[in-house]
Amino acid sequence: MLTEIIISGFGGQGALFAGKCLAYSAMMKDVEISWLPSYGPEMRGGTANCSVCLSDEPIGSPLVTEPDILIAMNDPSVDKFINSVKSGGMVFVDSSLATSKITRKDIEVFRLSASQLAEEKKLGGMGNIVLLGKAIKECGKMLFGIDAKTLQETFAKIIPAKRAALIEKNSAALALGANI
Amino acid sequence: MEKVLMKGNEALAEAAMRAGCKCFFGYPITPQTEISAYLAKNMAKRGGVFLQAESEVAAINMVLGAASAGVRAMTSSSSPGISLKSEGVSYIAASDLPCVIVNVQRGGPGLGGIQPSQSDYFQATKALGHGDFQMIVYVPASVQETIDMTYLAFNMADKFRTPVMILSDGLLGQMMEPVVFPTVDVQIPDKPWACCGHENKRSHNIINSLYLQPDILEKSVNERYERYEIIKQTCPMAESDFCEDAEIVVAAFGASARVAKSAVNAARAKGIKAGLFRPQTLVPFPVEQLNKACEKAKVVLSVEMNKGQMVEDLRLALNCRLPVEFFGRHGGIIPSVREVLGQIEQIHERIK
């Protein structure tokens, strides 16, 4: 099984970080993974995105052109990637920032106002993790059984000790998304 | 051994330190800068020297200096920066100095772009500087292989007293994959030729690339070519997938080999007899391995992120006995699996 994911948003929204969390979690589960960021001028103000591949076999192309799962955190991301999502794919949209109409009927779209929800819970800027929480709840099998527990362990591993407060906050944001 | 998740560039930098690299001289350029950044942070802590030079030209000449003293030294850059280093590389080769040069390729020519490319194939393999010289060129296709080839590059550089290039690209440099650092006991050979202080115990060594007597210059070049011959016999590396019965052999290296691998898998799933041939060294070119992989082949398809620079080497290696076709994207665009699969299907229709 190969699951291809694109996570996309404005530079600063944490698209790359969310992808890294997912990749690290998969590595802890001994799943083959690759993480490929967009880099360059689009990271400063435009859209930043990353391709994440999870597979039980060695991964060929790390560049995702037809994702099974799309996490889109702004309108440019929805516009850019929505038509490339595989039929039957899953899309998670931060509706507090992305309002583009999605007309496709062959994909499952989850809209949640992730940034706003995070803001209300004093977890400002963690809309990315809220969406990730929702994604792991809905896509369990496609994500090789990565769950909240795996991600919490990931946060503890990849967030440096001097910013330990963020481990709790990220875990809270994740739970927020997973419980919607 | 613990798996860690690392970017290709960072993994290369870490591997270099573990391989005994004590001096790094560089100048920032996208998409290579993580190598410099990682070494800037870590090299001094581990008993090495990191220096951001005033230019690429300065950096390569600092490598020449460090290598002259017998120290494992490295520089890295991306395409336009590598062009600037070319004079220094020629001097290093002519001085029989071991060092490692990393090129994390981006789109060219000129300043080009900053997205991944493989358009420096000719530069790396044919002439990264003036004069009669060659250089071993390793082309990794994963982050793990980047690590393994970094160790290899330092060892071969010392063994053959030659500059060695690791030809990476923006995709491999920027992507993260789980990797394991091998536990190896780094053995750096004695370097009796090095200029590291004779303490009045031996006559002094000279590192030089100027020979005003033609006969002496010719002799020095001939001696070097005897070493190149051993390199040609012992160093070629390649990997083949599904080539035993393949009618269409897709040849690709580095990042494009990753895309080609997915396309070959997809073609196999459709019942097309396709295989993947992936050179791991471009110099020396894996001639024997290619011919073995192409035993059943009717067509070879070269997939590259350039305008078809490997095609000539493939034809030469095959002695033109098979048609070599080409598909590529360039300017920083990575070919998609669908595009490559489309090419394989077209060829399949034609030869069936």
Structure description:
The complex is a heterodimer of chains A (about 180) and B (about 350). Chain A has a single domain, classed as Pyruvate-ferredoxin oxidoreductase, PFOR, domain III (Pyruvate-ferredoxin Oxidoreductase, domain 3, 3-Layer(aba) Sandwich). Helices cover about 35% and strands about 20% of the residues of chain A. Chain A contains six helices and six strands. In chain A, strands 2-3-1-4-5-6 form a six-stranded mixed beta sheet, sandwiched between helices. In chain A, helix 4 (about 125-140) crosses helix 6 (about 165-180). With about 350 residues, chain B is of the alpha/beta class. Chain B is built from 13 helices and 14 strands. Chain B has helices at about 10-20, 35-40, 55-70, 80-85, 85-95, 120-125, 145-160, 170-175, 215-235, 255-270, 285-295, 310-315, 335-350; strands at about 5, 25, 50, 75, 100-105, 135-140, 165-170, 175-180, 240, 250, 275-280, 280-285, 300-305, 325-330. Chain B has a seven-stranded mixed beta sheet, sandwiched between helices. In chain B, strands 9-11-10-13-14 form a five-stranded mixed beta sheet, with helices on both faces. A two-stranded antiparallel ribbon of chain B has the order 1-8. The model of chain B has no long low-confidence stretch (mean pLDDT about 95). The interface between A and B is medium-sized, with 19 and 24 residues.
- Any idea of the CATH class of the largest domain in chain B? Alpha Beta
- Report the average pLDDT across residues of chain B: 97
Radius of gyration of chain A: 15 Å
* Distance separating the two termini of chain A: 27 Å
pLDDT averaged residue by residue of chain A = 94
Summarize the main sheet of chain B: 7 strands, mixed
CATH topology of the largest domain in chain B: Rossmann fold
Number of domains of chain B: 2
Write the element-wise H/E pattern of chain B from the N-terminal end onward.
EHEHEHEHHEHEHEHEHEEHEEHEHEH
Distance between the termini of chain B: 48 Å
Proportion of residues in helical segments of chain B: 40-55%
Question: What is the number of beta strands of chain B?
Answer: 14
CATH topology of chain A: Pyruvate-ferredoxin Oxidoreductase, domain 3
* Helix-residue proportion of chain A: 25-40%
